[in-house]
UniProtKB/TrEMBL annotation:
UniProt lineage: Bacteria, Bacillati, Actinomycetota, Actinomycetes, Kitasatosporales
Organism field: Streptomyces solicavernae
Source superkingdom: Bacteria
Protein name: Uncharacterized protein
Key words of the record: Membrane, Transmembrane, Transmembrane helix
Transmembrane portions of the chain: 42-63
Length: 77
C-alpha cells in the first residue's frame, strides 16, 4: 500500500491532482493581492507577487512532468 501511495505523485493522476491544487492556491493569492491593493499594503502586495511567481513556476514544472509522462499520448502532443 505504501508503495502505491509513493508512486502516485509520478502518475498522471497525481500530476493532475497537483495541478488542480496548485491552481486552487492561485485563488488565495488573488484574494491576498486584492486585499493588499485595497489597504495600500506594499509588503503584502510584494508577498502576493512572489507567491504568484511561485505558483506559475510550479504549474510550469507540473506541466513539463505531465508532458514527460504522456510522451506516448497523442492528445498531449
Amino acid at each position: 500500500m505504501a508503495k502505491k501511495a509513493k508512486n502516485f505523485k509520478k502518475s498522471k493522476t497525481g500530476v493532475y491532482v497537483s495541478l488542480a491544487s496548485t491552481a486552487f492556491g492561485a485563488l488565495s493569492v488573488a484574494k491576498q493581492a486584492k486585499m493588499a491593493r485595497q489597504d495600500n499594503d506594499l509588503l503584502r502586495l510584494a508577498d502576493a507577487a512572489v507567491s504568484a511567481a511561485a505558483i506559475v513556476t510550479g504549474l510550469a514544472i507540473l506541466y513539463r512532468e505531465l508532458k514527460r509522462l504522456g510522451d506516448d499520448d497523442v492528445l498531449l502532443g
